[in-house]
Amino acid sequence: MDLLGLLALGELLAFERIALDARLAPDLGRRAQLSEAAVGEIRNYRLLADRIAELGADPAEAMAPFKEAIRSFDASTAPRDWLEALVKVYVGDAVADDFFRAVAARLDSGDRAIVEQVLQAGPAAEFAAAEIRAAVETDASAAGRLSLWGRRLVGEGINRAQVVAASHEHLAGLIAADGGSVDAVLRHLTRAHQERMKAVGLNN
Amino acid sequence: MDLLGLLALGELLAFERIALDARLAPDLGRRAQLSEAAVGEIRNYRLLADRIAELGADPAEAMAPFKEAIRSFDASTAPRDWLEALVKVYVGDAVADDFFRAVAARLDSGDRAIVEQVLQAGPAAEFAAAEIRAAVETDASAAGRLSLWGRRLVGEGINRAQVVAASHEHLAGLIAADGGSVDAVLRHLTRAHQERMKAVGLNN
């Protein structure tokens, strides 16, 4: 339940953040494209909230313990321009997907089915990846700045994840159920992040 | 095309505004409900943008002339709390629907079909109306404050509409095609607004 609450809140706040950051777009066409892509996140939220309700809990209550961690992550990583906003969408979505994959094996079959559906989505990340790739190709100087920004996002994300894991023992146990450690999961996420930065022309 | 551009931008910015104002919610459950309802607006945007493209124009270009009017309306009517945000959703959606209805008769059949679809939606307005009604029932003092706020929203909206009509002759002609005047359309919108304020327990 902790896990579903954390994931549901992550999707809900990703939706709000993307709709908000779309206003940084250089033109109305791209602004609309990013806003439309944000709908994928709120659909994921609905799948997770329905599952929480099905299990007899209240989605708002299940999400509440994680509000401060995500809020403080967002406050410390507010993008200053359109490309930084896109890197945050791309990195954030991807890390969330990796996290889903890492925990999927430990869930029962009902929850696993939801995770598979959630992993299918991701129009916001696809749009962001294409835009970043194009920007880096036409302006090589953007690559250095955005690579640094990507590292900062992942660093801040790992900090918050460690705080959350430390204060929710049950969650930490679930994440590291195979005898692995939370640190091992975070190292895996970092490696996957580095691969993905390369895929859009950024360094790690 | 002017008309479709104005309506498309109205829906796109309504989506962003609702996603943004959802953060004023007193709890995560209602915050999520309003965010989910915002999806109706972005769907309407997509219908209108597709129609603009079908007619051989670029949606971003069709919307651009109206950006300043809507931006300045939003800047002068930023809600200070959750109930003000809901009244803005309710009044804004309803006035947009009235406007759609007023112009629908003047459109060709392809555009009329889109307007009918757009008029079917409105989960955000329904959610807002139910919340306002409940708030006014439990706290009578809220009614006076929100009634005043509703009048202010409509006043500001009519101001901007007059500016837009004055600077887009073709649009003004289309709106008042039956020999009526833009003023008559605005008077009609005002009357319909008053009925709707009553429906949620507010005065006009």
TrEMBL record, chains A, B:
Residues 2-176 form the Ferritin-like domain. InterPro entries: Ferritin-like (IPR012347), Ferritin-like_SF (IPR009078), Ferritin_actino (IPR059125). This is Hydroxylase. Pfam families: MiaE_2 (PF13794). SUPFAM superfamilies: Ferritin-like (SSF47240). It comes from the Bacteria.
